[in-house]
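pls design
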């Protein structure tokens, strides 16, 4: 399912990014709100903060959203 970036991640006032819900990327799961990270931090080999504004291909699971990939424009 294709969703906008801001449906899964929140961009904070300081420029960091926080997941709105538990998210799994490349087999690594990060918790939901309260966790923040900046550009240069990778999860499962993906620098999620650097991909702000890109749509995301996801699969919804009962306990987390699985990120399958990011759309490039």
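designed seq:
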């Amino acid at each position: 399912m294709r969703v906008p970036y801001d449906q899964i991640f929140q961009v904070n006032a300081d420029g960091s990014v926080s997941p709105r819900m538990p998210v799994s990327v490349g087999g690594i799961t990060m918790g939901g709100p309260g966790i923040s990270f900046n550009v240069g931090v990778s999860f499962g080999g993906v620098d999620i903060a650097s991909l702000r504004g890109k749509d995301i291909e996801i699969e919804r699971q009962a306990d987390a959203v699985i990120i399958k990939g990011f759309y490039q424009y």
